[in-house]
Specification:
The protein is of the alpha+beta class. 42% of the residues lie in helices and 24% in strands. It has a single domain, classed as K homology (KH) domain (GMP Synthetase, Chain A, domain 3), CATH 3.30.300.20. Strands 1-2-3 form a 3-stranded mixed β-sheet.
């Protein structure tokens, strides 16, 4: 039987730190964390005018954030996903 993944404060801090650097309103950045099966899902909540800044042109910035997040998670032996609201 597979054990449930344990959320790491390092991956959560990475998501929050990166989003705060990109956002015009860093105080409104929130990261929620939930375990969904074998995956830890991070939900990033931003001010409406910051969503485009974090996603970037053609999704390049969010794709880079997700790639780095997956690499960090692989080192810890967990699976992660990033959603933006």
């Amino acid at each position: 039987m597979a054990t449930e993944p344990q959320p790491s404060s390092t991956t959560r801090e990475f998501v929050e730190f990166t989003a705060r650097l990109l956002a015009h309103s860093p105080d409104e950045v929130q990261v929620e964390e939930k375990v969904d099966g074998e995956t830890i899902v991070y939900t990033l909540k931003l001010a409406s005018d910051d969503i485009g800044r974090v996603i970037g042109r053609e999704g390049r910035i969010v794709r880079a954030i997700r790639s780095l997040l997956r690499a960090a998670a692989m080192r810890q032996g967990i699976r992660v996903a990033l959603e933006i609201e």
